[in-house]
lipopolysaccharide heptosyltransferase II (Duganella fentianensis), 346 residues
Amino acid sequence: MSQLRTLVISPNWIGDAVMAQPLLQLLKAAHPERPIDVLAPPAVSPVWRQMQEVAEVLETPFRHGALQLKERWKYARLLRQRGYADAYVLPNTIKYALIPWLAGIAQRVGYKGESRYGLINLMHHDETPPRPMVAFYAALGAPVLAQQSAAMRAALPRPRMQVSAGQRQAVCTRLGIDAARPVLALAPGAEFGGAKRWPASHFAGLARAVLAQQPATQVILLGSPKDQEACREVAGQLAGAQVFNLAGATSLAEAIALIAVSSAVVANDSGLLHIASALNRPVVALYGPTDPDHAPPFSDLAASISLRLACAPCKQRECPLGHQDCMVKLTPELVWQRLQPMLAAR
């Protein structure tokens, strides 16, 4: 390949990948002629394929957590042939910084991370307190010495994804969903841990409130195979309603398309929440043990709900106090107050 290209090495989490998307907007604005490739884990790659700035998604062949130095060297030889001018290493580990260094990419941009001196030659440093995630990744597109003011951060582009009409129609046809009727998407799961999950009874109570006002609404429950139990519990409390329990029954690409057809999305702090935000769907984001200011949604119609208790955000996978008040006391009635005007505006 004779044309110079840019390589972006993806984070390992879906939500982080979505929140890194504004960096690509900044890179494309700086070098509109330069194709951007993304190297991503297979589980995350569908997210990048829905971003218009991405020329090609390359899937990592490496096992999770393994150094695999010989395999990284072989893969770096393949990357060398693609002619990259620069690489943006979003994970903070040494093993991902090795790849562009072994590939001989001249400019390698990233955070200090695991003391990656030499491997990263345009090094940024974390701030204390930490920046919101969108600003954290977007800063890699600016000179190291540039100080980002609050006004500059507010002016950053929003995460942005797109789904074609064909993708939407295909998934609705396969699953028997009527795209002409309202669709409420609920995401009861959270990869980080149980502390981030709003109780199943609360999700069910919210769905009943929506159905009482809009009986034609189709409720879809989205999540990975790990979320099947949480989604089953919600579905079990909605007997008689038209509920599609799709946890583990769709690919990530299909889940993205389903979110794109949804009238509104209610989700814990999770990857699906940030996908809904990037697709500009009306979204209600539920925060308990995590900071709502660190990774908020950016939709035109968005509500971040947190009780902001004294013990939060604890950032723990399970409630260290054993009561999970930050989510349990966040009632369906409170969430319905924020969701109802969004549905009325559609």
Summary: The chain has two domains: 5-154, 165-345. The first strand starts at residue 5 and ends at 9.
